[in-house]
Design brief:
Elements: E1 16-19, E2 25-32, H1 39-43, E3 57-63, E4 68-74, E5 78-80, H2 92-95, E6 96-98, E7 104-106
Antiparallel strand pairs: 1-2, 1-5, 2-3, 3-4, 6-7
Length: 112
């Protein structure tokens, strides 16, 4: 039995994506099945561009030409990044390892 109100995330951990509108790309390190940020954050987005809350939202180790940062982006605003260009975000090595085929996999974490 499937619950149609819960969408399956299109992108998994380690997926390399880019924003549909803005010039940045990144790697997915966490996924929220629906919006899980503050109302203030959501309302700060211009109304004509504000995404629906009932879709997956992705936490990205993101980068643009000038900087590296963490971004929170709705699924409707992401597309796969097929450029093949290397990502430079300093946080990637802490979270992921890249295999011989170029796929990013979450590093094994050992409990402290």
């Amino acid at each position: 039995m499937t619950d149609q109100s819960m969408k399956t995330a299109k992108f998994g951990l380690g997926a390399v994506v880019r924003h549909r509108i803005y010039p940045f790309r990144g790697i997915v390190f966490d996924v929220d099945p629906v919006f899980d940020n503050t109302e203030e954050w959501w309302l700060a987005i211009p109304e004509e561009m504000r995404p629906r809350k009932d879709q997956p939202f992705y936490h990205l180790l993101a980068e643009n030409a000038e900087s590296e940062y963490v971004a929170y982006v709705s699924e409707q605003n992401l597309v796969p990044d097929t450029s093949g260009e290397a990502l430079r975000h300093a946080g990637i090595a802490e979270v992921f390892v890249q295999d011989a085929s170029g796929i990013y996999r979450v590093r094994d974490r050992h409990a402290n």
